[in-house]
Write a structure and sequence with these properties.
The protein contains 14 helices and 8 strands. It is of the alpha/beta class and about 375 residues long. It has a domain of about 260 residues: Alkaline Phosphatase, subunit A (3-Layer(aba) Sandwich). α2 runs parallel beside α12, α7 runs parallel beside α14 and α11 packs antiparallel against α12. The structure holds zinc ion (ZN).
């Protein structure tokens, strides 16, 4: 396991790099790139001025992260539109590090003396997002973040590939057999997730936590006293972002989870990979640009690890099966110490998200967790 690489990695801006080494799609069906009506506003969202007020010296990072959202040409992977990721993904992920091994490693890959200090982790879950939808839709924000960070188009959900079970794994670091969430509805009689969760572990370590979600059933994942600020914003991305941005501006926690429901809603209403859903992906991309802009305006970007992923994919108007279309999810990390253009291995499982977040925040990973920190995000990109 490579450690400390983030402290010596490439911090310089690099030319746009192909972000995936997947071969051309084997069954690519021509599909128009969605030119969203939001393209103009999206372009505006990524033209964010460099902050003129610099963070305190202890927090400042000389990494190029504040220029994270500088418009960049689309990565060359955009030419390989098609359901590549789902078709070529390999299920049956392997947990590379046992919890004991994870505990035995330094909790943070960054030396405290290094500039890659991470003081905040923001996890954005785009509900129902297939990785090949990013390739087909117009997503300048996600494209820019991918070129600046580490990305896998072949991370894996747990089974069944439904929202609550997978968000439970994503935010608890555990498989369903351990986290105990086997249902996918909002039913207070069914109780809470079995901890420790990402939030309870972070909170016990003295860190502030917040969740802003677009589905009320996610409250099943909130253990008492573990989330300082839990907000069910409403069932749309716009409502969620409208709550998340003031939180960033006035009460930014060390750990922030943001759940965006629109892509899943479009999939259920019209169909996965339909033009309507791809337009929803594009609009969600624009809203993520607003979140990144808020982080930048408040000078948090240089000290924030941003993880963007999903809970499951889908096909037709459904999900929940063990098919690659349902279980393959994108997994993106960008932040201080993460070199640009890192292509991550395919062994990432959604419960690794929680372990990665705790590791970045220098909080010990609970021994009962299945997840392992994805430390490959801090390894230099291969040539
Ligand atoms: Zn979902």
């Amino acid at each position: 396991m490579l450690l400390l690489a983030g402290c010596t990695g490439n911090f310089g801006l690099s030319a746009p790099t192909p972000i995936a080494s997947t071969p051309p799609p084997v069954a690519a069906s021509p599909s128009p790139t969605i030119t969203a009506a939001t393209a103009e506003s999206t372009a505006a969202a990524i033209s964010i001025p460099v902050p003129t007020v610099l963070p305190a010296p202890a927090e400042i990072s000389p990494t190029p992260y504040p220029t994270l959202v500088t418009p960049t040409p689309p990565p060359t992977v955009a030419a390989t539109h098609g359901p590549t990721a789902a078709a070529t993904s390999t299920p049956a992920p392997t947990v590379l590090a046992t919890p004991a091994e994870a505990l035995a490693t330094p909790p943070c890959p960054c030396d405290p003396a290094c500039p890659c200090q991470i003081n905040h982790v923001v996890i954005i879950s785009i509900d129902g997002l297939r990785p090949d939808a990013i390739e087909r839709a117009d997503t300048p924000i996600l494209d820019g973040l991918r070129t600046q960070g580490a990305y896998s188009p072949a991370a894996q959900a747990v089974l069944p590939s439904v929202t609550l079970v997978n968000h439970a794994a994503m935010l608890s670091g555990m498989s369903p057999a351990k986290h105990g969430i086997y249902w996918n509805s909002n039913d207070p009689d069914l109780g809470k997730i079995k901890g420790p969760t990402l939030f309870s572990a972070a909170h016990e370590a003295g860190l502030s936590t917040a969740m802003v979600v677009g589905k009320p059933k996610l409250e099943h994942l909130v253990l008492p006293g573990s989330v300082d600020n839990y907000i069910y914003a409403g069932f749309t991305d716009r409502q969620v972002v409208n709550e998340a941005i003031p939180l960033i501006q006035t009460n930014m926690p060390a750990l922030l989870f943001i759940h965006l429901p629109d892509v899943d809603s479009a999939g259920h209403a019209i169909g996965w990979m339909s033009l309507a859903q791809l337009l929803a992906v594009s609009m969600t991309d624009s809203l993520i640009g607003e979140i990144v802009a808020a982080l930048q305006e408040q000078d948090y970007l240089s000290q924030t690890l941003l993880i963007i992923t999903s809970d499951h994919g889908g096909s037709g108007r459904r999900h929940g099966s063990d098919s690659p279309e349902d279980t393959t999810i994108p997994w993106l990390a960008v932040g201080p110490g993460v070199p640009a253009g890192v292509v991550l291995p395919g062994e990432i499982t959604t419960y690794d998200t929680a372990a990665t977040a705790l590791s970045a925040l220098r909080v010990p990973i609970p021994p009962e967790w299945d997840g392992r920190p994805v430390l490959e995000i801090f390894e230099p990109a291969s040539p």
